[in-house]
Specification:
binds dinuclear copper ion, alpha+beta, 14 strands
């Protein structure tokens, strides 16, 4: 947040609004052209509201003090038909509404504009309860963590595989509905290297609140390296290693029935796991991607994420350890 508007924060926190400061999921720290436009509009309207509040409360306080009842004073004389006053209090609100409406409509049109030529296309598919990202120009399919280069326009093409969701990464722009059978667009240019947390913003079932996402904005060279790593085939496993035993467990416990894994399986019920070891989170962004959380997650998915389609496969401990070693090595 720019320095000159720091005073806004405590005010808004007091009102229970989305906060900046130590809270990363904030629209008050805009980091794309789209987010800046919405934030500017918010500030403009907030200033008008502040002006109206100060004027109205100021006049009220003045009248309460100036015309309070005094002992022995005559009854006040009522005012009727004051033409100038009536014109003033009709015109002033009308003008304020114009000052709010014009920038609002202008911002709506600006943020609905088509993507500029050369924008990076990403197809975003909402699922109960995780986000799938497809990069048609690179042949890359991933989940939960959306990687973007800084300073380049991106065009998200949003649709859903099941029910209505809403894609929302507050630092990069407003919410956009994700509707089955329809493609909505979200166009913006991230302006700085950072990780922007977000989440589904439309109630979509039992684990709606568990439908998290992260947008990782990197320098272009870092992004290109990530793309190359994702384009590479699945990690080669050392024969006889624990990870290789885990690969057999992946097949034996039916994981291949739902997940794409390199050339071994191509199912699309759950996220593509070919490079799952390179992600920082699992289970739709709900838990950190480490051995402890993987064990807890695979050990009993429905208790970790209510309503999830992933069943408890009752994998015994030695196989579970091998499975985790396998997933962590798939980078
Ligand atoms: Cu998806 Cu709420």
């Amino acid at each position: 947040m720019p320095k000159h508007r720091r005073w806004l924060l405590p005010l808004l926190c007091a009102a229970g609004a989305a906060c900046g400061g130590p809270f990363p999921q904030s629209s008050l720290r805009p980091h794309s052209d789209l987010a800046v436009a919405a934030d500017q509009l918010f500030t403009d309207i907030f200033m008008w509201a502040l002006l109206v509040f100060v004027v109205v409360e100021g006049v009220l306080l003045y009248v309460v003090v100036r015309y309070r009842q005094r002992a022995g004073a005559p009854a006040p004389r009522p005012t009727h038909g004051h033409t100038i006053l009536e014109i003033a209090w009709t015109l002033a609100p009308a003008l304020i509404l114009v000052f709010i409406a014009v920038p609002t409509v202008r911002t709506i049109f600006a943020t609905q504009a088509d993507a500029p030529a050369g924008a990076l296309r990403v197809q975003v598919v909402g699922h109960q309860w995780w986000w799938e990202y497809r990069y048609p120009d690179f042949g890359v399919v991933t989940a939960t963590e959306l990687h973007l280069p800084a300073g380049r326009p991106v065009s998200l093409e949003l649709t859903s595989a099941d029910v209505i969701h809403s894609f929302w990464a507050p630092g990069l722009g407003g919410k956009r509905d994700v509707i089955p059978g329809r493609t909505n667009h979200l166009v913006f240019s991230p302006d700085s290297v950072d990780t922007f947390p977000g989440q589904c913003a439309e109630f979509c079932g039992a684990s709606h609140a568990n439908m998290r996402l992260r947008v990782m904005v990197d320098r272009d060279s870092v992004f290109q390296a990530w793309v190359r790593a994702q384009q590479a085939g699945a990690t080669r496993l050392i024969t006889g290693s624990v990870a290789e035993q885990g690969q057999q467990a992946f097949r034996r416990y039916g994981c291949i029935g739902c997940h794409t894994m390199g050339t071994m399986s191509s199912a699309t019920v759950g996220p593509n796991l070919t490079h799952v070891g390179s992600r920082t989170t699992i289970a739709g962004g709900l838990f950190p991607n480490d051995s402890v959380h993987l064990a807890r997650w695979i050990g009993d998915p429905p208790s970790e994420k209510p309503g999830t389609a992933m069943p408890n496969m009752h994998v015994p401990a030695p196989d579970l350890a091998a499975l985790i070693a396998y997933l962590r090595s798939m980078r």
